[in-house]
Specification:
By secondary structure, the chain is an alpha/beta fold. 45% of the residues lie in helices and 16% in strands. The protein has a four-stranded parallel β-sheet with strand order 2-1-3-4, with helices on both faces. The longest helix has 20 residues.
Length: 183
């Protein structure tokens, strides 16, 4: 069971046009992945959004898949879902660090990504975090992606109105001055 400590959750964003997300899932632990997918889908559907799901071999393939989808498709955002459980080797650190770092770099390039790759010590922690009725980290990752999409749309719509842009008519009038030689 999750701790009795409460955390603030932002209200769901509202959208004036539909949102389409891609869920990129590494289903190595199938039951964990299925619970995370259920939580993510419920969150996306709650805002009237749509989604597609693609499965990849492991957590390291999630960022590459998101980068390909960004270049080759038309998704508004992405939800990374998977689970890495600590084992006896350093492979755990490599997978956790590299997948997280790659997702962060993609985000810094402007992609709207919710990171739902669980990095846990044992299966019990994974089950608790994946359960839509408990910690619901799949739903949380979808919510993060949706909030980023809302911000991108808010700020992306401002690009035409921010900064100084001379009126094209003023440029033409300035070019018609008596001091300007004509050909």
């Amino acid at each position: 069971m999750a701790s009795s400590q409460t955390h603030y959750t932002l209200p769901r964003p509202e959208f004036d046009r539909p949102v389409k997300l891609l869920l990129v899932v590494a289903p190595y632990y199938r039951e964990i992945a299925d619970n995370m997918i259920a939580g993510a889908c419920a969150e996306i559907e709650a805002v009237g959004g749509s989604f597609e799901i693609v499965e990849v071999p492991g957590a390291l393939e999630i960022p590459t898949t998101i980068a390909m989808a960004e270049r080759l498709s038309n998704f508004d955002g992405y939800v990374a879902l998977g689970c890495v459980i600590r084992g006896a080797t350093t492979h755990y650190e490599t997978v956790c660090n590299d997948s997280s770092r790659a997702l962060q770099l993609l985000g810094l390039q402007g992609l709207c990504i919710g990171n739902g790759i669980l990095t846990v010590e044992n299966m019990a922690q994974a089950e608790e975090r994946a359960d839509p009725g408990d910690m619901n980290k799949g739903g949380g990752a979808a919510a993060a992606a949706l909030h980023l999409v809302a911000l991108a749309r808010k700020w992306g719509g401002q690009r035409g109105d921010v900064g100084f842009k001379p009126d094209p008519e003023d440029i033409l009038l300035a070019g018609d001055s008596k001091d300007t030689p004509t050909a």
